[in-house]
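Moderator note: this is an archived Q&A kept for reference. The question asked for a predicted structure of one protein chain; the sequence and the answer are reproduced below.
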Amino acid sequence: MEASSLVWPALSQDGQPKYQQLIESVLTAIERGTLTHGQQLPSISELAELQQIGKVTVAKAYEELRQRGVIRSQHGKGFYVASTDVRTPLNVLVIFDTLNAYKETLYEALKTALPADTALSIFFHHYNPQVFESLVRNGLGRYNAYVLMPHFDTDVTGIVQQIPPDKLLLIDQDLPSLPGEYAAVYQDFETDMYQSLVAGLPSLLNYRKLTLVRSKAHFQYIPAGTLAGFRRFGDETGFECAVVDNYRDDLVQPGEAYLLFADRDLIAFIKHASRMNWQLGQDIGLISYDDTPMKEILAGGITVISTDFAQMGQTAGQLLTERKRAKLANPGGLLLRQSL
């Protein structure tokens, strides 16, 4: 492949110096095999014209690459790839919604799947779009990979779009309206909820009703797809389903089942059942959302609907390590335990 036939990505406006972006574009092309050992690069004049930048900027980038031993110059002939051993350490900005037990599982799996020399910086937006935008803006140009969890009731596509697609990985939730070729490891919330409840229908038939409890008093993010899957289950099976805001003890009736999202609601529910001498899985049914190690043993085992957060972190780490841009649905489903 001749230098003139190479496709060079447009430089971004993320605040990173142009010469540094040129350096990274050369290193990325070598890592992906687009540039091979001994291959000629565009001349300084050609690349400056192509990118609409000054020749001094291109010369600075080429000189740094030459000093690193990545390229070599041949007098009167140009610049050539001298080494393909150019892997650059990952410097990753991670922005999650909030810290809880299953986010720890996700983060630890992500960290374990990444190379040992990876630098990770983690922040939390706590479902506040303004905080999220501030974290993204402050991180622009300072990292070579961005892992974002866009859990919001409003569209944050415009915020996320500031990040170059080749440096972006969305985790836990995709943004269908986001343009460009980027990486994502996401939950299919509607399908997972619907299929999980269908799988649990034989156990649910021991009860007359299933109530989903949202925790609006203590904000708990519930994706729209999750609610859509819940309603779809009720519509298609004819099983009585209801959605209520905020847990109260007087909501709980024997002979009915409940789907809880907030851990504080889960604990209050179990305490109330104990006071009333109701047996979980017999007098009342309980399903919790998102698995944690605690739920495996709490009250003899809590039935959960959950994605595999360890698998999600591992997959995300592999995509980052291999610099791959793919969109992958993470496996999830029902884990049936004693409480149902």
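Archived answer notes: The mean pLDDT is 90.
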